[in-house]
Each structure stands twice: as structure tokens, then as C-alpha cells.
## 1
Amino acid sequence: MTDFQKQLEQYMLVIDEKLQYYIDSIEEKSIVSEAMQYSLMNSGKRIRPVLALAFCDMLGGDIQKALPFACAVEMIHTYSLIHDDLPCMDDDDLRRGKPSCHKQFGEAYALLAGDALLNLAFEIMFGRFEQIDAPLAMECGRILSSYAGIDGMIGGQTIDLESEEKQISLELLKKLQALKTGKLLTAPCKIGVLAAGGSKEDLTLAEQFGMDIGLQFQIVDDILDVTSTAEVLGKPIGSDAQNSKSTYVSLLGLEQSAQMAEQLKEKSLQQLAQYGDKAAFLKALVLELSRRKK
Amino acid sequence: MTDFQKQLEQYMLVIDEKLQYYIDSIEEKSIVSEAMQYSLMNSGKRIRPVLALAFCDMLGGDIQKALPFACAVEMIHTYSLIHDDLPCMDDDDLRRGKPSCHKQFGEAYALLAGDALLNLAFEIMFGRFEQIDAPLAMECGRILSSYAGIDGMIGGQTIDLESEEKQISLELLKKLQALKTGKLLTAPCKIGVLAAGGSKEDLTLAEQFGMDIGLQFQIVDDILDVTSTAEVLGKPIGSDAQNSKSTYVSLLGLEQSAQMAEQLKEKSLQQLAQYGDKAAFLKALVLELSRRKK
């Protein structure tokens, strides 16, 4: 196992334990709390909370300070997946190889489980479950709530809905992606910096880094949808073309998309260079994301 | 116009102006922001934010300090109505005499409008739109988020779902109602006290007062569903019996229910007595709620 893999496993362990702690803290056990558990603890990659801990670590902070906010980001991510999978949205029956939340528990309970996870993220940040550093909570809460809301992720979901079955411009695709996935990857990077007491420059870098890897991630997704196989990907390929969805590949072609992903990777690595060895984990994460096959 | 009516109109004006300010502050105008505007500004009675301002006023506080949190409560109330009206929940086509949000904008946009309103409530409390008093925001945010979540309102919605088409005990009905509607009436009372810098005793009273008028409100609702006419009520009567829903009337009978509502009214008035003339508005509000015909 490489140092990167060891560190990643360590982070994921810490994150999963804390997420489970919050779920266990729910007083009213019900089908909804079961559905929350099911979707939240469904072996996700935990990229967002890992980014928060890694940024905090890189700047010499205590990851325990970043952890509640990192978990809040993951809950918001999970709620958005539950609601996105609902019949009135993408109508997806599968999520990470298992029945999606509404397939398992029914639509009404899935709707409430999503609502409850979004709400729980804020209960955490307002310190319902532990003593919380108030100035840090106010800063992280302001970032996360605005990046998740109508001018952030929900704004991106809205453009996505409005663009269904339509050809859209590269400019609008970039905006859609930046809001829908970029913002919620950027928020944990900034949270990690704030928890470590980083500088304004660190914060600016974290913002750019989050947007860049979000874009890189999306382009690689679009490429894999064309070049991979269903076996490797674990879901049907060619689904974007079938849904007449505008993607980086459909708008720029395969070669130019691959170039763009490569450039973004190089840019992210260069940005991290100033942190030297302390950025080893984040550099390896960038390489991992660019090399992924699914 | 009575002093009560004048004061109520004044409060509602202040609340509606502030709610509109937040909606206008959304940067990404879209069908979703339009749906948020539609449901939020749909001439609601504003009971929850009025309670926050009235408690703040009674204790000599500045209502401007309570106002952002009062608006946050109203947004959470509105999101819960939008999601409750969805086909997978109560499947209601009408809300306050107009098409419900999903009837007007479609299910997907209504889902996102609900999500966005819940999120916006927290953006407000974390000070996205104005300078906000951090210690007050942390206290109000902790109360409101936990009262709105899985151990509060959503917990009540869950019991409601689980109890559909079932006879339930009086005890469970009380718990359901306390969570589903009581918590979100109690939160603004406590917020008003906190914004005015009230004492621990004021806070305890606000908690009890909120639960009591929530219960009183529900019992009167159940009574009207049996004794009123569709013309006066603006919606079909007898719907609870038709849906085999357990209510205070079905469990206790009409007479005992009316007695219980009367006792709660008297209790609320007695509690307010210690504040003398300063409680005039809240006393009138309690009487108004008990006398209402719809």
C-alpha cells in the first residue's frame, strides 16, 4: 500500500466514524433515520470531506477542528444525490450498485431523508452535537450554505433541469458544472484552510484548486462515458449521448477534452508545489483523480 | 381597526418586506427562484415570524434583531408545505386557494424550490445577506435547526407518514403534533426572547407558550374540520374522517376537545399575565386563534 493509500484509508476511517456518530445521535429512530443511514453510509468515496481534512493537515491544523464541517459537506452531498435520484428528477434506480434511496424506502421517506440530511448538516454546524468554535462555524457555515444553495449547487441543478434535451453552449456547460459540482468541492477545501487558520492566500488557492479539480473530474467523467466499458464503469456507457446531453466531449471532441483535463491536472499540481512535501497527499489525489478508470 | 389588528398589520408589513429583500438578493434568477417567490409570498398568515417579533417587542427588544431569524422560520415553514404538497406526500393541488407549487411549476422545480428555501434560511442565519450578531445567530440557529430536523418537524412528518390509515393513540397523536407543528411554533417564541436578551425564565415560558398554542391550534383545526362548512373553511370538511385520520375529535369527542382548547387558551393567557400590558398583543393573538372560524 502506498503512503497515499494509507493516508486515504485513515482519513476515510475518521470520517466514517464521525458520520456514524452523528447518525447515532438522532433521538427519533424511524424509517427516515434508517434511510439516512442507508444513503450516507453507502461506501461513498468521501472525496469532499477528505479534501477538507487534507487541506487542514497540509497547513498544520488539527483535523478534528475541520471534521464536523467535513461531515456536514458529505451530508449535503448525500441529500443532493437522494433528491436527484427521485422519479421527478433523474429517476435513477441504482446508486453505487445498490437500490437508490426511494427504491429501498419509497419516495416519501426518501424525500424526508434528503431534507433531514440537509437539515442535519446545519444542526452540526450550529453545535447541536458538540462544543463548536463559533467564529469558525459562522465562517464555514456561510461558505457552505451559500455554495450549497440557490446561488450554488441548487442553482446548478436548476440549469441542468432547464437544459434537458437541449444543446447548450460551452459557456453555459461550464457554469452549470461549476455550480452543480464545483462549489461543493470548493467548500471543503476552504473549510480545511479556515480550520487550520490559513492565510488569505491559502484561501484563494483553495478556492481555485476546488474549482479546477471539479472541472477536471467532470471532463474525465464525460470522457469515460465514451471510452470506457459498462463492465469497468459499473453503469451503462454512452448514456450522455442517448440523453442528448451536452458534455465536454460532445462540445469539444475527445482529444481537446483530454488536453483540457491534462492542463487542469498540471495546473493543480503547480499550485500545490509551494507547499512542498506537505502537499504530497493532495498531489497524489490529483493524479489519482486524473488516472481513474471509473 | 383594533390596536391588535394595527399591530399585526405592521408586523406583517415588516416581515413581508424583509422576506422580499432576501428573495431579491438571489443572484441566479430561474424557474426555481420564481417558485420560491410564488410560495413564500403567497399571503400566508405569518404566525411564526409574528410570534418572534411579538416576544421580542414584549421584552423591550429591537425587532430588527429578531427579524432575520423570524424570516428564516417562515422559509422553513414554507419549504415544509411545498414538500408536503408533493404527489409522493399529501398530493395537494391547492395551497391557500392557489395551485400548489408543483402544480404551478412541476414537481422537479417544486422539489428544488423547497430545498432552496430550507437552505436559504440557513444562509440568512450565517449572515450571508447582512452583518449578523454571531452569538445570537449560533443560539437561534441551534434551536431552529434542531426543531426543524429529524428530532423536530421532520420527525413529526415521519410519524405522520407511518400513521397513515391507522388508528393511533392519544399519546402518539400528541407527540406527532408537538413535533410536526409545535416545534416550529416554539422556535420563533424562543428566538424573540433571545433577540431581546430575555431571561432564562422568559425562555422557559416561551417554550411552554409555543407548545400550548401549537396544541390549541391543532385542536381547533380538528374541531373545524367537523363543525364548519366548506364555504367558510375554503377547503372540504370531513377530510380527516374520510382519510381515517386520528384527530383530537375522533379520539376525545367534540365536547372534550373543545374543553381542552379552552383550557389551553386560559393557560396561555395566565402565563402572559406577568408581563401586564406589554403582553396585550400576544393575549389578543391567543384569543384570535381560539375564536377563528377557518
## 2
Amino acid sequence: MGGDHGPSVVVPAAVRALATLPESVSFLLHGDEATITAALAHHKGAAGRIEIRHAERVIAMDEKPAQALRRGKGTSMWNTVEAVREGQATAAVSAGNTGALWTISRLILRMVGDLERPALVTTMPTLKGVTTFLDVGANVDCDAERLVEFAIMGEAFHRAAHGKAKPTVGLLNVGSEDMKGHEEVREAHRILREGKLPIDYKGFVEGDDITKGVVDVVVTDGFTGNVALKSMEGALRFITTELRSALSGGVLANVGAILARPALRRFRDRLSPPPAAPLLGLNGIVVKCHGGATERDFAQSIQVAVDLARSDFAAEIERNMRRLPAALAEAPAADPAVDEAATQGAQE
Amino acid sequence: MGGDHGPSVVVPAAVRALATLPESVSFLLHGDEATITAALAHHKGAAGRIEIRHAERVIAMDEKPAQALRRGKGTSMWNTVEAVREGQATAAVSAGNTGALWTISRLILRMVGDLERPALVTTMPTLKGVTTFLDVGANVDCDAERLVEFAIMGEAFHRAAHGKAKPTVGLLNVGSEDMKGHEEVREAHRILREGKLPIDYKGFVEGDDITKGVVDVVVTDGFTGNVALKSMEGALRFITTELRSALSGGVLANVGAILARPALRRFRDRLSPPPAAPLLGLNGIVVKCHGGATERDFAQSIQVAVDLARSDFAAEIERNMRRLPAALAEAPAADPAVDEAATQGAQE
């Protein structure tokens, strides 16, 4: 029922996804039975693999998370997540209210191990392919251990979602030397380097390395990640606007712009953010599809959920989380001399 | 002597700057006398306004700041900054080693008030004009008071460099509500809002507001600022590369690209970062010009230094710094309930 378009997008997206997914995949559609039945009327063929679960109520797109939590029980979103907890579904996909989905998922599914909050992860296009980037806003204050948890979750996610056997991982910092950055990031660096976790950790990366594609997974705290992501989105919007005005600056430029239009359209497609963002660290798979999703976007989010469900993703995260205490013990304590040098700041 | 090209760029840049600067402006050129004299040979007219100060030694572009500090005395960079301290010069401009300039300036000129380190400030092109953005890397750990100091310095700089009588100021955060973000940023927000500093403070801004030009001055800690700046630079490079490949994807697109070329060149010019970055918070004006500077870039950096020198910039910073203790007392203490809510993170 969620997203800007509700069942008119979600139902045909589910039908579209079924066409390419293995026979073993089927859907529970939670929401208003009459509306969903009507939307399904045109797709008789899919009936055997789609089951409707009626829900009386819906969480509004602008509802505050706290309110969604109070009155959430029995809504389509609540039931969707609860079906995962009860083992009726392997993964949940929603285009509904992000804050509500985050809060309800955390309450119903609970976090893996000592994790406190689901991380928001995004997939960035890069010069070499795609990079997984997290946390982009859920966890504003992060100690070293939290950053290492993000590395564990991001690595497992990248393997499951992008099919790379051994993704490389980098920690976002203001320079590449060991002594750069604040204490949390240097401590996480030590744990990842010395802690013998089965992760291909490449060390510190800088802001411009995200789009260079230097590593497969870029890890940072939710404050820095959110600011970096939005800064890049802003830069993109700025450039698109400037480009449009540069290309309308005269007759020749105009003709040029018209001729270049198809190429520019492909360019824009390549830059548009992927529609699906999983909530990482939950005991269960929850994929958030953006609210303005088209049929194609929602079908793609379903595909991400299926990829995660068919991978060893959750078990890998749990296994590596169990190794974390040993990794923490393994990593040598901070060297005060290095700490002192680091307080000199980034003087590049 | 600094930068990738040394006197072959700096000397003609100084001559070029003299042509547009008032008669009262003159230069001390610190460095190897023979080299500078040779470079000046083609510019007889400028001789009366340029004085050569011979320096035996030069700080290398790849020298570590600590080493530069130890063996810096008597180098052209050291003498340039010392001339400011001694009142022989009003401002210093260098295209040399950034870390060395930062460290030497801090040692020789010392910081204003209780400031600990010079802030690195950059000027971003925006949809509305330009935005001053700081700190972009010098101060990795920042408490609330440091962030307020950046606001004071950035505001005075923006007025001096960009001629706006009352620049607006925003604090970078992951959302615009009071309860968003970590403790330091929320405390700085309270001080700027309630502390009665003579600053037009507009509240929190987000990453994409930098290039939107929502405020004239965007304030953040050196870690976040460095990551955001480099992320935007990376996004720009990514987009330029993608665009080039999109525009070479076929005969029509190619013709389009050729016709659009002058417009695209103007676009690239608009996006190239400004060559001059002042070190803010020193008892004296020091402007860093980027190492790869052209003659035009260095002349522009000289212009920035002159603008700062002719403004009330330093006195304004000092006045507002003196008001800071009262502002800190004025701002009410943090509300624990709000703190609690904030730990829920950015769940947008």
C-alpha cells in the first residue's frame, strides 16, 4: 500500500518480477484486499504465486516514526515485517514511510548481536562499477566497534547484491596515513587491519575515492555518510542545472544539445540512484524501495530482496559478528604518540 | 619559489596583479635573487613596486610539516610569513607546500584568541553564486565552541572576500530539526541561535544545500568538511568522465558534442575550484594558492589577499571572538529530552 502510487505500482511490479524469478519464489501482498484484487484482475496468470493478506489500515507516508510505532499494529507495513519474523516470508519489500519501516523493523525483528540500529546503505555508481556506501544517516554517533560492524554488514551485502566473491573494504577518512583522522576511525582501522576478520580490508579511503571505485565497500559513520551522500547529490543537481544552461547558450550549442540528447539521457540513467536500499543488521531481510518508485523500480527492489534471501548474507554477518570480540582483543591498543601526531589534523 | 612552476609563474602573476591594483600596493618577493631578477627582466615597468628579498633556501613541495618547521628558518616561505609578523607586509601569498605553510604560519603568527588551529576555507560555486565552506580539513575534532569560531571567521571572510554586507550562516547537519545530529552540532546550534552574536544565523543545512546556495557560509568540522568537499570533487570528476563517454557514443552525439563544446568549456570553467584558500584565524593574512597555479590563478590569489587586507576582516573576527564567552553563557544548557530523541538518529 506504500509509496506515492500504492498497489497501482506494487501489484504490476510483483507480476513483472515473477516473470523472471524462479518458480519457487512467491509473494504475500499485505494491504486492502479489494484494491489489490482489483489491481490483480488484469494478471490472471500470476494468481497461483500471489497470496493476498488483508490489512485494515495503512501507515501514512508523512506519519512520524513514533506515531507509526504506537498505532502500527495491524497495518500493512507491520504485517509485512511480522510475516518475516514468523517465517512466513523470507524478505520484506516496502515503498512506504522510511522512518516508520526502520522503526517497526527494528522493534519486530530486533538487531543482530550487539548492533543497536539498522544501517542505511546505498549503492553509488563509480568509474569502475558500483560501490556500497554505509551508513548514510541512521547512526549519527559511531564508535570504532560500530564502524567495524558496518564493514562486516556492508561486505556481506555487497557479495550478496553484486555477486563479487571477495569485496574490498575501505574506511572513509581525511587522508590515507595511519595517523590521520579522529580516534574512532583510527581505532576501527586498527581492528580491521589487525583483527583477523575474514574481510579484504584495504585501509583508509578519501571522499573522492567513493566515485573512483577504489574499493567495493566504503564505511563511515551516519553523520559523515549522510553529509557526503547529500553533498554528492547536490553537486550532481548543480552540474545538471549548469549544463542545461550552458547548452542553451546559443544556436549552435542548442543544436549540439539536441543532437547529444540521447547520450545525455543514458548518462542521467546511469547516475540515478538505485531504487532499493536494504536496512542492514536486522534479524531478517527488509528492503526499502524509494517512495516515488515506478513499476520497474519496485520490481528491481524485489530482485534485490530475492538476491539477499538466496545468499548466505545473514549467516555471514552473524558469523563475523561472533568473531568481533576476538578481533577487538587482537587489535593492539592505540599508540599515544600516533594519537598526538593525529591531533595535528589533516594538513595536506 | 613555491608551487609547481615557481618564479616563472609567481613573478609574471605579481606583475599582472600590479596592473589592476591601486598604486599603494607593492610586493616583497622572497626567494632566490638571481632567479627572480631574471624573471623580472622582461617587466621593467614593475620594478618600482617590487622589492626582492633574497632567501638562500626553499621548502620542498613534498617536505613533511615537522621537517619544514625544523629547517624552515631562512627559507623563502618562512621569511614571507615572518614579514607579516614584523609588519613589513600586510599579507602573505604562497603556492608552496600547504602543510608547511600551515605549520609555519601557526608558529610565527599564532592564533587569534583561544583558537587552536587555522581553518581551511574553500569557496564553492552554487546555483545562486558562491558559498564559503569551512573547515575543509585542518581541524578533525571539533567541539561546539570551535564550530562557533568557524562561523565567526567564515562570516567575516565572506564579507571581505565576496563583498556581502551581512552574509547568512548555516551549520551542516543530517536534518533541519533542532534534535537532529550529534551533541557538538546541536550545542553549536544553540549558541549561534541564542548567543546574541551579530551573525545572521539561519540554522541547520544539509549536504545538498551547499551547492544550492541556501546560505553564504556553511560551517562544519574538518573531518566532515574534508570528506564532503572531496566527495563533491569526486562526483564532479565522475560526471565529467561519464559525460565525455556519453557524448562519444555515436555520430550524432559526436556532432552534438562538437557543437556544444564552447558551452561545455564555460561550464567547466565555472566549476573549477577557486585557486586561493586563506588560512583563517591567524594573527595576519596568509593566502594559500594551489600548487599547480597558473599566472592567472596566482594573480587572483593576490587579489584575495588584497581584498582581505583592505577589509575590516581581522578586527571583526577579534571583536566577535571577544563576545564568544558571553554567547556561551547566554545559550541555555542542552535539554536531556531532546538529546534522547536525537539518539534515535536520522530516520528520514
